[in-house]
Design goal:
single chain, 292 residues, alpha/beta, Rossmann fold, seven-stranded parallel beta sheet, 7 strands, 45% helix
Length: 292
């Protein structure tokens, strides 16, 4: 579902940089922000895809090749955005990768790539932008974390670990810079229908699958009214608080009843293969068995 681009100009005057902005949540966010008057810099590993994607966006945008795991690449991206549009007001660290497999079957190379992209990626952007934003006396950094950074489920141990790390990075920075004008936000969506979840049976009891548009709109609202933790949908915050009070046995029983314990283990590996090859290269990856 394409995001309806706003013409209200609510973001007019803002310069925003988005990583992983050529597809999925990133692209929907770019469309919404540019349509609302923002000047948006887009970074992605695939420059050809950036060019094609930005051709579908109304508003002022500029695209760059970006490898978030490479500090120099990240700095060149941010410099390029600022050279074109001026000082960045909001950095959205959206780029992320997810591997789905039994924990001990997952190769070390794939596990480490998730940590590099999902934790060190936003760290690189934050370390570059925080000094710049402090010097200007303003700035907002938004990290797209995932509810997997608050709840761990079978089948995605290292992905969840990386997202817990990204959440800690956001919360820690918010605490450290609490006496400054800087704002930090962690966006924590539940399950989203996107390339990241290709091959996943997304049906669970009592849970609605989100669209990329749902998350983009949550990001836009967070730019307008900054908040440290943003759950999508918002009632996930209540579920999280309840789990903190539950004995583990009850929590596991609920996961089994809702089938949440299976959603990331019963994978169509053939349908997911193209995503895995793009995200993790040609590293040897074992097939993920279906589990009863």
């Amino acid at each position: 579902m394409a995001t309806e681009q706003s013409s209200s100009g609510v973001f007019t005057g803002k310069v925003i940089a988005v990583t992983g902005g050529a597809r999925g949540i990133g692209l929907e966010t770019v469309k919404l922000l540019a349509g609302g008057g923002a000047k948006v810099g887009v970074g992605d590993l695939d420059p050809a895809l950036v060019e094609r994607s930005l051709a579908t966006v109304r508003g002022e945008t500029v695209g760059f090749r970006l490898d978030v795991t490479d500090r120099d690449s990240f700095e060149k991206f941010l410099d390029g955005v600022e050279d074109r549009f001026g000082p960045i007001d909001v950095l959205i660290n959206n780029a992320g990768v997810m591997s789905l497999s039994p924990f001990t079957d997952e190769s070390d190379a794939v596990a480490e790539q998730q940590l590099r992209v999902n934790v060190l990626g936003p760290m690189n952007g934050m370390k570059i932008m925080i000094p710049r934003m402090l010097g200007r006396g303003r700035g907002h950094i938004i990290n797209v974390v995932s509810s997997a950074g608050r709840f761990s489920l079978p089948g995605a141990v290292m992905y969840s670990a990386s997202k817990f790390g990204a959440f800690g990075l956001t919360e820690g920075a918010a605490s450290e810079y609490s006496r400054t004008p800087l704002k930090f936000s962690a966006i924590c969506p539940a399950i989203v229908q996107s390339d990241l979840t290709r091959g996943v049976n997304l049906s669970t009891r009592g849970a609605r699958t989100l669209t990329t548009d749902d998350v983009a709109r949550a990001i836009a609202r967070t730019i307008e009214k900054p908040k440290l933790v943003v759950y999508v949908p918002s009632h996930v915050s209540q579920i999280y608080l309840l789990t903190l009070l539950m004995p583990m046995r009850l929590r596991r029983a609920i996961e089994r009843f809702t089938r949440a314990d299976r959603v990331l283990t019963q994978i169509d590996t053939e349908h997911r293969r193209a995503y895995d090859e793009r995200a993790f290269g040609e590293a040897e990856r074992p097939a993920v068995p279906d589990r009863d």
